């Protein structure tokens, strides 16, 4: 019998037969119930089976055995990037912290660990990561594979912390890549195209505390005038807006308390929030991380949402667009120009900054970026039309989409704007010559076949 657990029609029986009170079995029931859909429920995976190895050796065996497969992390992508025509391999049970190297200031982990599982273990040992995304529920390898990011003008995206990956390639062998090797820069933000990352090493630093100060109703005129200063007013800054009024509804400023705190004074005409807020002002804020200037550990402040809670109902779609930092204010105003198009399907939009990196497939490759994120109602036919308008509107700024969210940009446009796409395709073919990890997303957007 295969050492790994198969989830699908057959494994449903297996899980029921094996029902005990062990944590694994409880989790398996949940996986079976949710297995065929992504987190938001807008996409049903076509892969017939889902395999869940418990060790790296099991992962290697599975990869060797199968002809077609794709890694599945925590299922938080909104499109079909993690799907496979045949088989998905979940890294869910590869979720251990392996070791901390105190001299090198690095942590080595199994790839399926979620940031929310890793962070408290690092904190316990006195360490921290440089940044986190808006929620901690996502797997480290899945997040890095799609260039997931938080905010902060000096903060690179989450993969910028990666120092080494151990990649299981199509023949089941492990290839180790680190920052000294050119292939590393193609492989980390790898869209799951090169193989399945089994283990990763990340930079860590001494733990730090963060406080969140929120401001409301920032005049757009001030934003236009002081875009860079506002985005630099804390370690990590997010703007929440619906583009409708002459104001940005909320500014979230996350400041490290081990660094000199900015004197906010009057915040560019915005007023300090008088109570805890959800990014959508009308929604209850109890699932959000603590605000009102209350200091707390990095991992309980950098994400907007707490680990123990579902960040929202999940009945939503997301898109996110990257433009170079120098175009940010102009791009914002261009979006204001189509606010009536955007509004009917919009739940909220978030603006963030990300520092440049060296990853070939990162939208921030060699350029500091600002991103425009959109949380949409789950109405794809309407949202799809709006995305076309947004992409057209931001086209003069060479806009690129988040790989894990919804977009409609043509593959030829992606190709013309991702300068290292050819090198990436060559690299993917080097590690996956028979296309074991190819799926329809990669065929369309990367291989363009
Ligand atoms: C509520 C919500 C909030 C979000 N917030 C943010 C945010 O703040 N910032 C942001 O940038 N994005 C955000 N995202 C998007 C999300 O973080 C990314 O799409 C990320 O890829 C999700 O990771 P995952 O493990 O769930 O990936 P999955 O959807 O499971 O997989 C994504 C890709 O990673 C590959 N992959 C997974 N594991 C491996 C592995 N071990 N080896 C090789 N390839 C692998 C898969 O094959 C696939 O191509 C958010 C998504 C949701 C649903």
UniProtKB/TrEMBL annotation:
Domain FAD-binding PCMH-type intervals: 43-207
Pfam families found in the cross-reference section: ALO (PF04030), FAD_binding_4 (PF01565)
InterPro entries: ALO_C, FAD-bd_PCMH, FAD-bd_PCMH-like_sf, FAD-bd_PCMH_sub1, FAD-bd_PCMH_sub2, FAD_lactone_oxidase-like, Oxid_FAD_bind_N, Vanillyl_alc_oxidase_C-sub2
GO molecular function (one): FAD binding
Domain of life, source organism: Bacteria
Keywords: FAD, Flavoprotein, Oxidoreductase
Any one Gene Ontology cellular component term annotated for this protein: membrane
Protein name (record): Xylitol oxidase
Organism: Pricia antarctica
Origin organism lineage: Bacteria, Pseudomonadati, Bacteroidota, Flavobacteriia, Flavobacteriales
